[in-house]
Amino acid sequence: MAEKLGVGVIGCGNISKAYFSLSPLFHGIKMRACADINMDAAKARAKEFKLRAETVDDLLKDDEIDIIVNLTIPAVHYEVSKAVLDAGKHVYSEKPFVLSIEEGLDLKKQAEKKGLRIGSAPDTFLGGAHQLVRDLIDSGKLGAITSGTCHVMGHGMEHWHPNPDFFFQPGAGPVLDIGPYYVTNLIQLIGPVKQVAAFATTPAKERTISSKPRAGEKIPVNTPTTIHALLEFANGAVITLNTSWDVWSHGHAPMELYGELGTVFVPDPNFFGGEVRFTNGTKPVKKLPKWNHPFGVPNEMHGQGMMANYRTAGLADMAIAIAEGRPHRCSMELALHAVDVMTGILRSGESGKYVAMQTSCERPAALGVKDAKALLAKKK
Q1: Contact 90/67 with Cβ under 8 angstroms?
Q2: Using DSSP, how many helices (H) and how many strands (E) does the chain show?
Q3: Are the C-beta atoms of residues 258 and 114 closer than 8 Å to each other?
Q4: Which tens digit of pLDDT belongs to each residue from 293-339?
Q5: Cβ distance 104 to 97 under 8 Å?
Q6: Residues near 69 by beta carbon (within 8 Å), at least 6 away in sequence
Q7: Where's the Gfo/Idh/MocA-like oxidoreductase N-terminal domain (predicted)?
Q8: DSSP β-bridge partners for residue 167
Q9: Residue 174 to residue 342: CA distance in whole angstroms
Q10: What is the pLDDT of residues 59-74, one digit of tens each?
């Protein structure tokens, strides 16, 4: 087994807890330190998970750190990731990877020049449910995917997040914040996107926070909050993607893919697990039996029940891929193409024109049962 790579984290907000608490599930990585522009936040997380709290500059210089996880706000993803590469370390970013193609290509150039790796969330597509759909598609049981629908709609984060401001600013909104889960899963299931078209609107120009501690405070909305898009894939499939934070309730499934031979109902790609249903031709729709995929096993309380949560799987796969000299699945190319798709959707919504993609990518390697088990640390 390869030696574990030391991992540091920049950004100690809400999402950092998932990385710190779930990383022990995997071999190949060892969380060592964390940093934040707010040292109190860094010290609190360090104490909670028995890590070192460091300044950002000190973390970048730390010889025990091989990979830095960028958990900052999207607006500074590029700046922070560039600093990590300049420091000679691999970087793994939260989604969205960057906010423009130009930023992504510059990071790619820097990484290639230094022989470093870039990875990016989301890694939920590695979950047992989505890899079961991938296996179904790759087996040919659906035939070629010809069309489909995706719906991710709700009423925004101001009802539960303590500081929801950035969700409603450029760089966020439902396409760039939640869209990465859906777009990335579509790419790994179907392949790259050729062009997009979209309509976008902003029904409410300000929102009222109802969550504590800022309940009653109004915040401005400076990015579209309802976007209806069409994605044409390189293989000819056409997918509808509807995203909104202006919907109180709806009855649409998260994702449905229609093939020449059948239909598959895909669970929410924001999560690793869920029920996969399938029909072949005129046969009744049936729930596919659960397969023995480790990233589909419920391991965490969610609401009134248990769910599968294996965030950090993409980071672990990248660390092990570095040691093994193979491509990692949550790759820069995949993340950049997803950014291309999402920013293209927003540009189409603004211009009313079709937008062709500037990038492409290969589908990441499937993560079957054997490969998924190989990422997990051996139980003592």
Answers
A1: yes
A2: 11, 19
A3: no
A4: 999 999 998 888 899 999 999 999 999 999 999 999 999 999 999 99
A5: yes
A6: 7, 8, 9, 10, 11, 19, 91, 92, 93, 94, 315
A7: 6-118
A8: none
A9: 10
A10: 999 999 999 999 999 9
